[in-house]
Amino acid sequence: MVEIKKGMTESEIEEYVNYVLNHMSLEEKVNQMKGKRFIFKVIEDRGVGKRTYDAAGSKRFNIPPFEFTDGPRGVVIPGSTCFPVSMARGASWDLDLEERIGNVIGRETRAHGGNLFGGVCINLLRHPAWGRSQETYGEDPFLIGAFGAALTRGVQKHNVMATAKHYAANSIEKARFKVNVKMDERTLREVYLPHFKRCVEEGCATIMSAYNKFRGKYCGHNDYLLREILKGEWGFRGFVHSDWMDGVKDTVGGVTGGLDVEMPRAKYYKYKKIKNALDKGEITEDMIDGAARRVMRTILNFTTREDTQKYGQDLIGCEEHYKIALEAAEKSMVLIKNDNKIMPLDKNEIKKFAIFGKYASVKNVGDYGSSSVSVKEVSTPLKGIENYLGDSIEIVNCNGKDPVRVKKIAKEVDVSVVVVGLNWRDEGEYIKELKIGGDRDNLSLHDSDIELIKAVASENENCIVVLIGGSAITMEEWKEHVPAILMAWYSGVEGGNALAKILFGDVNPSGKLPFTIPKDPKNLPFFDKNADEIEYGYYHGYTLFDKEGYEPAFAFGYGLSYTSFSYNNLQAKVRDNNVMATVDVKNIGKVAGDEVVQLYIGFEESQIDRPVKLLKGFSRVHLEPHENKTIEIEVPVKNLAWYNPESKVWEIEHIKYTLYMGASSRKRDLLSVQFNI
Ligand code: BGC
Q: Where in the sequence numbering do the catalytic residues fall?
């Protein structure tokens, strides 16, 4: 008989699991299918989850439980490093950085005694009002998939299992427990699933099912999503677990649907209920064996690796991890407007500096839902600026409530920074019992913020607006009143320090928007936070704007720098089932900077309805002044396929394609060249 030992091969694990299944009682098998929290204290424990949630495992057979902790802003157990939210990280377009963040999360999970990280959140930002926008990476499936895969890689490198969630079509918060999402097959395959498939290909160990219904069936009961597509077509070998607050609605639905584990405790996967369903012939023993097999196989695959001991507590929130949080904040902020190059500020030319707004001096690192990372000390914008300037310049801080005081200060100072935006009351995971979170009712700033911006700008022409939030904020009412706007996101524990370095030019901003900011929200897809049923269309974000010819306020992929880049000599060659694209990018300004080179593909003379263009590659590059680099990006031809719902096959059209490369999704920022397949 095979015994559990370190370094087991896949076939040894399979053999052991076969042996175990032959010797386990039904009750022992059912024990693999549920979390172990007896008291349903999920509400108190959530978010600031004080410890891991354990599930499955068997002492008799020497199989450890899995120990779940959450994210994605960092590990939610107190003390962990709090990173900028995922949406900010999406704006960095830096996959190497995301993998290093995954590394930190993997390490801190292990130091807390966990072995499963449930924070690879890759739902698609269909509409910016979605309350949990901050937990994902943007509006584009290719971008989200690349980031989800990078986080998975980083976490799993530390032999910690990663969960990709919430599978699938989960893009409305308040209605998440009831909404039935409908869509046609192409929309499902081409828009809402590719990022999940990408994470499965990356080897992500587990999948969390979503709360919502898909085509009339709860995602946790959805045999089409779970059995047919995920486990069948994609060959996923890990296990599926439910979301927390009744992600399973009944025993038979969950088991037949292909949901392997009910978390965080058994309500419907209790032994008696399973036994009863078996006796009635509503479920089969094969289904139970299948679920138990997946769970044990996955746990053993990770826990029998050579290096799995608990890491030392000193790793949690250590200096090295904070440095990565700082780097992430620096690389993710997006410079949206910078008229007359008012930024970077020159500290030698400033005597008096004012910082306004309710978020200038408070901790505001995101919502208080399941992704909340509790940290005591945060570098707020004010602290970051004080830290940076020391005593060299007089800094006035004003929350902005008294308009007379606001105007008086604004008049007296050389530069005004206004920090406004959103917090956990405006957007976030919706928890009814705690009266927090939910979707946004409108996409603009609060009236009081708009008044504050206008008041400051009317007295001080050097007015910089710093926006805090997790997705698109519309700016039409005030953007012409100010020379500079910086999207700073919920920027994590080092956010204020990063902000100061950007304002004063120690860091050159390089983030690019991972979503479209509309001028008019009416151009966005229909959104109803209370919907019982909704149809998701094929187009949203930039594909919708491109198709309909809508002019966005700021386009997907857009962001300014303190330097300028020129693009030349775009070329495309098709070789060995790959499109090889090259372009020369030159830094034509005076300071060094990072540029995010984007690659889109357009489909000319297509016989079917296809987007004007789709993101199919990107590369972040550092360039010194006058430096020129040839950027090469390879796109596998298979990535240009469309899903034919009739033949159920991904098909490549033999047509003319346009390759676009450049600085954003705006036509005027892109060079283009055509090629044929
Ligand atoms: C959230 C999940 C989270 C879980 C556990 C749920 O309500 O939707 O994203 O992983 O709680 O914290």
A: 243
